[in-house]
Specification:
2 domains, Peptidase C45 hydrolase domain-containing protein, Penicillin V Acylase, Chain A, C45_proenzyme-like, Peptidase_C45_hydrolase, 38% helix, 12 helices, alpha+beta, three-stranded antiparallel β-sheet, single chain
Length: 308
Amino acid sequence: MMVIVSTRNVVSCNILEVNCTGSPRAIGLTHGTAARSLVHGSLAFYNILFQTKCKMHWSDAKLFARKFHPYLEQSWPQYVAEMEGVAEGAGVSYEDILALNVRTEIAYGAFNDGCTGLSWKGKGQSLLGQNWDWNLESVFSLPRLLLSADQDESSLQMIAEAGILGKIGLNSHGVGCTLNAITANGVSYNKMPCHLALRTILESTSRSAATIQTLEEEGVASSCHLLVGDVTGGTGLECNRENIVRLEMDPEGLIMHTNHYILPHNEKVAESKNLLPDTWYRLRRIGELVDAVKKEGPSIKFVEVVPR
């Protein structure tokens, strides 16, 4: 898989790099200790955001988050241990960190962050990437870190929000993931929260049926699109509390996605009418950009041209 980091940024962002090893709790402890001030920044950021977007005080957000604990403790105890480690290192409560990790479920449909994701399998190489469009205040205020974790003879790297265990990233097996927010109703407390689902992808060894089947069997707690890629190409997973619908590559090896469902979903799932107004435009635009260089295939040149 081709991984490209562009040095041309719209705004200048300082990113803390944290390297973690050991048990889940040890990884969390290193994360929380090294990024202590950033974790507190994340808590402050979402405290304000939940109040303004969801009319929910932080104490209520923690009570909401606690509803996920029984499922996580039974099915994913390693993530509970890691969150406990983050909390200890940062000097905050476990519920504070749990609330950060279920922030999508707390405020499903209430955030206005938009993003465009792309997976493109060419001849001999595979490209996976996305952007993350949010308001300028959020770009400057939201703490972020480059988290590297070594576990079970494999390693992963991700650009994460401080205190959150899963995000956009790549592992040493060449498996990567991206995320698109989807505005649709409903949440399940007995399924995998969105950001922890991203972590499970980053702990997998391939974009195999087994990797995807794990998520399909466990389910994802809220609405989102997870794009999984490796050297063999990509698979999109349009998720909601009821089920997961696969979006496979087109004949030219492409998957493109923004912030609305592309495929039909369970009738119990109602997508909001208040979608980001540019989600359809961005999907059309990424298609135009790809069409312009389709004969050349995925390349560094393509990635450098797209932001312009």
